Amino acid sequence: MLPENATEIREWVLNDELLDAVVLLRDEIEDDLVQEVNADWIQDRNKHQRADALGLEKIFWSAPNTKFVEWGVSRYRFAEHFDLGGFEDAFDDFERQLSSALSEDVGSYSVRALCFDLLTISRSSKLTLRLSDEIELALKRVYENANENKWCEAEVGPGKRYKVAPSVATTAVACLALLRLSTSDSQKRLGISAAKWLVQQQTNEGAWCTDYEIETGVKKEPDVFITIAVCEALVRAGLSGISHVLNSAKRWLMSQQNETGFWEEDGFNYSLCTVVVLEALDGLEYLSSRPADSYFIVAEGFLRRSFRFVREDNATSRRLAVIAAHQGLESLLYSLLNHEQKNIWKNHTETIGFREALRVFQEQLKFKKILKVNEIIPNRSQLESLAHIRDEIIHKAADVTEASVRPLVDVAWQFASKYSREILKIELLY
User: Fold this and answer.
1) Which of 19, 91, 261, 302 has the most CB atoms within 10 Å of its CB?
2) Backbone angles phi, psi at 276, to 5 degrees
C-alpha cells in the first residue's frame, strides 16, 4: 500500500484520501512534495475557473456527497498545516456550505451523521473557530435529542413493531462531540453522564459496537471508529477507575491492525482510518497527561471567544474581540513564562503585563536559540498593534472596524497555536 518510487509517491500525495496521512507525517515530508500538491491544486483551480465562466462555484475539487465534508476538511487541514495560500475563495465557499449544512434542523435519525461531521470538522482548529456559531447551534440540537443520558435510534425488523432503543454508536459520537467541542456546562455534564453509560457497553473483547439496520433487524458489531471515540470521551469526561477499560480497548485496537500495519473499516479509506487511530492513541496519552494550567485554560477560553465576537456585526462585539484576544495572549504568555520558570509578577498583587511578558518571552526564545540574537518574535508588530488598539478601546472608547480587527485576531491565534505546540507541547482546542 505504501509508495515505492517517485511516480507512486507523487500519485500518493496528490490523492485527496491520503492528504491526512501527509499531514500526520509532515515532519518527514519534503517541501518538493508539498509544492507538487500546490501546483496540482493551482492547475485544478484554473481548469475549474475556465469551465465555470460565471464564477458561481469556487470549490474546484470534486467529491461524492458522502465524502464532501471528509475530503474538504482533509484539504483544509493540508493548507492549514503547510501554509498554502491562493485558495481562500474555495475554502471560504467550503466554509459557507458547511455553515449552511450545520444550520439545518435535524431529527434524531440523523444525529449520528451530524456528530460524525462535527468530529471531522473539529480535526481543524481553524475551521472549528471559523464555524463556532454554527457548531454551537448544532451541539444544541444534539443535546436536545438526547434521551436521558444516551441517544436512541429506531429499530425496525420484519414482523416487528417500530421501537426506539439506545444506540451505542450514536451515543458515542454525540458524547464525544459535546465533550470535545461544547463550551456549555450543561452539555458537558450530559456528555459525562453519557460516558458513564458507555463504560457499561464495552464488549468482553474491549471494543464498542456500531449498530445499523439490516433486513432482519439491527446488526451490532465491534467498530474501530466507535471504540476510539468512546476512549477519547471517557478520558475527556475525567472518569476515575477506568484504566483497565482503556487498556482493554487499546489491546483490541492493536489486534485490528492488518499485516501491513494499517487499520481498515467498512466505508472508510484505509489511510484515514489508520491516521485517525494513530492520532487517537497519541491523543489519549496527551489528554491523560495534559496539565491543569489555569493560565492556559483562561487563554484558550478568551481566544475562542475573540473569534466569536469578531463575527458579530456590531461595534461592541468588535471591541470585545480585541479585548478578548489581548487577554487571551497575556494569559498564554504567563503560561509560557511559568513553563520556562520566569517570574511573571511585578509585585505580590500585580503581574508584569502583556508588553513586558512578550519582551521576556522573546528574550527566552533567544536564550534557547529558537530566535537569533538580532531576531524578533514573529508578528511582533501586529501583537503590539493589538495591545495599542486594546488600550485605545479601554481608555478612549475607540471604535474599530472588522477589517482592522479580524487580522489581529488571526495573528493572535497563530501566535498562540505556534508556541502552545512548540513550548508547552499542547494543541489549542484539542
Assistant:
1) 19
2) -65, -40
